[in-house]
Amino acid sequence: MIDSLKHLPLATVSNGELAEHFTDLAPALTKRQAAIESARCLYCYDAPCTRICPSEIDVASFIRNIHDQNINGAAAGILKQNILGGSCARVCPTEILCEDACVRNHDEEGQPVKIGLLQRHALDNANFASHPFQRAASTGKKIAVVGAGPAGLSCAHRLAMLGNDVVIFEAREKSGGLNEYGIAKYKLTGDFAQKEVEFLLEIGGIEVQHGRVLGQNLHLKDLHAQYDAVFLGLGLNASRQLGLTGEDAPGLMAAVDYIAALRQASDLTALPVPKRAIVIGAGNTAIDMAVQIKRLGAQDVTLVYRRGYDAMSATGHEQEIAKLNHVRMRTWAAPLEVLLDDAGCVQGMRFEETRMDNGKLIGTGAFIEIAADAVFKAIGQSLDPSGISDEMAQQLERSGDKIKVDSSFRTVLPGVYAGGDCVAPGQDLTVQAVQHGKLAAMAIHNDIQSKVEAA
């Protein structure tokens, strides 16, 4: 996965010192801090924070429970709507969702209630005697879920709650999807993602099979024939290409591949670290990559984007994290050429300066060169075509590189549903994927029961 950088030197400081660079980005609230912060909530009627939450968490209610020292009640209320509420509390862009909608933003304080940190406080400090949700009576139905990422896990948990049996087929060695392999190590620290998966599976009725790859040793036609329904939570696993000569040269790789290697590394000193790095992109993954390679010891990191700051999909909060970590951000520059040394390895990139002309991005004819030992692409992900290569999967209707679904996450194939990043609607957020999985599970359950009643 990281062979492209094997010619580069390894990190120069100890594993312990490097580990200190990947502790929690935002430290947890103390009990006293949580009490003070929860008292700031006005418990609004028709609370705007709840209305904007993609997973429909009753924000005011769980904060009231924290204020009343009912931590288990607060946690149960969150998990009822979002079974991955712990990870979402850490990675969800609350600054553009619930906290942005908080009415405390619009008075003299100008400081929203720290909803994300309060959600984390509730879930980190809950102490359930057993799993907080019980399974309904068995329906005798079995559903296949492809992908053990946030969408697939959420779907499986809700289906199990409703009395169905579920088999999850996951390509990788671990469950968790983006939470396990794709989030910055300083956002989801340690083995938190695995602990959350283990907690979710305590509901019972869910089997997970790893190393099962759709299009290779797993086929939609077989799943469709053997199970009462199929949910596809495939994610977006293929990195988009720059389309430039030299893109396969040593020193150029997808940011998500490096982030995955970083998250799975037991010894951070075993990671190759360039002295100078370029990150191409404008989203949260680009920020995560740039900040992490800087924290590993890269001396000079430049994030390059072809448009301006206001067009970046990374939130202002994320951009500020990059600046605080001394990442240089260069806007209005489009990748033009990979620069190689005599050995054929990356030594930099040439960019063309850009500008907007009547709403269209154009090149100016001016060029800049940036020296680098490594270039990381963070220009977006797409649906892996190999995963939908069999005859039945090819019948799925597509919108660009995503699967088209209706409002209940049904695909055009009867009995086949899809959700998460692989489908057309949504914001490609963990919390959105969790919501997709939950809603799809309820649709699957209702559709199956309707057939049973009709029969």
In short:
The chain is of the alpha/beta class and 455 residues long. It has 16 helices and 17 strands.
Protein topology:
Layout: H1 15-19, H2 31-39, H3 48-52, H4 59-67, H5 71-81, H6 85-91, H7 98-101, H8 115-125, E1 142-146, H9 150-161, E2 165-170, H10 178-181, H11 192-201, E3 206-210, H12 220-226, E4 229-232, E5 238-239, E6 252-254, H13 255-264, E7 276-281, H14 284-295, E8 300-304, H15 316-324, E9 328-330, E10 333-340, E11 346-357, E12 360-371, E13 374-378, E14 381-382, E15 398-399, E16 402-403, E17 416-418, H16 430-454
Parallel strand pairs: 1-2, 1-4, 2-3, 4-17, 6-13, 7-8, 7-13, 8-9
Antiparallel strand pairs: 5-14, 10-11, 11-12, 15-16
Describe the largest sheet. 5 strands, parallel
Helix content: 25-40%
Query: Could you name the CATH homologous superfamily of the largest domain?
Result: FAD/NAD(P)-binding domain
First and last CA, distance: 51 Å
Explain this structure to me?
The protein is an alpha/beta fold. It has three domains: about 30-125, Alpha-helical ferredoxin (Fumarate Reductase Iron-sulfur Protein, Chain B, domain 2, Orthogonal Bundle), CATH 1.10.1060.10; about 140-235 and about 385-455, FAD/NAD(P)-binding domain, CATH 3.50.50; about 240-380, 3-Layer(bba) Sandwich (FAD/NAD(P)-binding domain), CATH 3.50.50. Helix content is about 35%, strand content about 20%. It contains 16 helices and 17 strands. It has helices at about 15-20, 30-40, 50, 60-65, 70-80, 85-90, 100, 115-125, 150-160, 180, 190-200, 220-225, 255-265, 285-295, 315-325, 430-455, and strands at about 140-145, 165-170, 205-210, 230, 240, 250-255, 275-280, 300-305, 330, 335-340, 345-355, 360-370, 375-380, 380, 400, 400-405, 415-420. Strands 3-2-1-4-17 form a five-stranded parallel sheet, sandwiched between helices. The protein starts with 14 loop residues before the first helix and ends with a helix.
